[in-house]
Amino acid sequence: MSSLKPCVEALYEGVGRVADRIPELPKSEVVLVRLLMLTAGALLREFEDRLKPHGLNDSDFRTLMMLYSSEDGSATPSELCVLAEQKPTNMTRIANVLAKRDLISRSHATHDRRQVLLRITPAGRRFVAKLLPPMFPAVAESFACFSATERKTFEKLLKKLALHIDRTVDTDACP
């Protein structure tokens, strides 16, 4: 991963200059948003670099993990769209990618034959079980700068922000 330090320094300098020109700028909030976006982008790039050798991107992986973590290993594409924050067209692409690799299967719901049901396959479960453990050290290292207490506080604050934004922003999730 490339160094974020120059980006962080430029962020503070740039926001400072904008605040000098527009005094009513909510400087603290702008810095927080930019830091979150910068950090999330860096984490996503690193994560996708780890997924690339396995032929997956983040949205493919998140979809597979939603099926893996669901109680019965299945969901409809519409449910997955909402949870994975994907449009229906992209969910079709994701389902095609995962089905082609036999990580998921498609079938029709028993209660409504018009409804498609995606289900993780045994091969998909084995794939996830093999893929995840090597990623654990990098995830842990990303947050090694925090104590256990700080991580819990950070988690609570991010959750609070996410739930607040959810109430105040019209999300663009699919139906």
TrEMBL record:
InterPro entries: HTH_MarR-typ (IPR000835), MarR/SlyA-like (IPR039422), Tscrpt_reg_MarR-type_CS (IPR023187), WH-like_DNA-bd_sf (IPR036388), WH_DNA-bd_sf (IPR036390). Keywords: DNA-binding, Transcription, Transcription regulation. This is MarR family transcriptional repressor of emrRAB. Residues 29-163 form the HTH marR-type domain. Pfam families: MarR_2.
